[in-house]
Structures are given as structure tokens and as C-alpha cells.
Amino acid sequence: MGLFSRKAAAPVPAPGTKAKSEPPSVPAAGTPGGSDDPLVPLLGMSVDQAAYADSTLTLTFRGAAGEAHLEGYGRVFLAEKGVPSIAGTPPFEALLGLLPGRKVVGAAMRVGDTLTIDLEGGLAAVASLRAGDYPGAEAVYLKGPGRSYVNFNENGVARLQM
């Protein structure tokens, strides 16, 4: 076999990086790797308060793990059984009023795409993590439970010290 008859090798990612493919998602609760997921502590907590003002969806959760506060900026929506309602519309306001008292049954983050909090009864709160869909450097802030403080944006997750 001559030098020019060989196939080019598949590109190898640099050490410490991953090959570019579909954006990874944060593991769901109960799956391997889910324990380091900053969203896992929300599972089983209930929405205590829900509000929307100035393009910001604010959710406060309470549960055995304590209290958590989530703020989603920019393009956010609520969904009922997969049907989205755009922020600021009457259907969105109606769903916002249904959130308090609902338990978190799932939470996932798809890098560069969305952060989704699934609630009892087929309700979900979704915030876009796509660049340009939110003002500033972060799309979503999650404070707590406990002393955890996490930012989510198009590049993934950043943990902050408190």
C-alpha cells in the first residue's frame, strides 16, 4: 500500500475536549452520572412561587432539601402536555398560575439548546440556552438548595462559589 492510498484517519479531539456532535444533555435523575447534575436536587421539590416580569421567569422551590430559586431570562415559555405557551400571553399567564404546589418530576439541560423543568400534571417550564435568545452572559441562574449557585448558558454549566 502506497503513502497516498491510505484513508485519512478520523480527527482526534484535543486532550480534555470532546468530538463535536449533538449537544449533550445533563443526565436525568436516576441515571448514571446524575448525582453531579445541579438540577437533581430539584427533583421532588414543589413550586412555592412562580412569577413572570421583565422577560424573567422566576420560580421558587421548597422541599426536604431546602429552598431553591431559579431565574430564566429572555426566551422562556411554559408548556402543558408538550404544547408551549409564549411568555406574556394569556395562556402563559394561566399556566403560570397552575405552577405553585406542583412537584418537580424531571429536569434536563441540553447544552446550547434548552433547560427544562418538568412538573406534575404534564406542565413544564423551558428556558432557551441558545446564544442570542437571552440578554447578558447567562440564560438561567439556579441558587440552592443549600449553598449551590449555578449559571446555565449556551456553553453549558458554571458553578459559582458562595
Topology (SSEs and partners):
Layout: E1 46-53, E2 56-63, E3 66-73, E4 76-80, E5 83-86, H1 90-98, E6 104-110, E7 114-119, E8 123-128, E9 140-143, E10 149-153, E11 156-160
Antiparallel strand pairs: 1-2, 2-3, 3-9, 4-5, 4-8, 6-7, 7-8, 9-10, 10-11
Q: What do you see in this structure?
A:
The chain is mostly beta strands. It has a domain at 40-68 and 105-111. Helix content is 6%, strand content 41%. The chain has one helix at residues 90-98; strands at residues 46-53, 56-63, 66-73, 76-80, 83-86, 104-110, 114-119, 123-128, 140-143, 149-153, 156-160. Strands 1-2-3-9-10-11 form a six-stranded antiparallel β-sheet. The chain has a five-stranded antiparallel β-sheet with strand order 5-4-8-7-6, with helices on one face. Strand 1 and strand 2 (56-63) form a beta hairpin. The longest helix is centred in the middle third of the chain and has 9 residues, at 90-98. The relative contact order is 0.18.
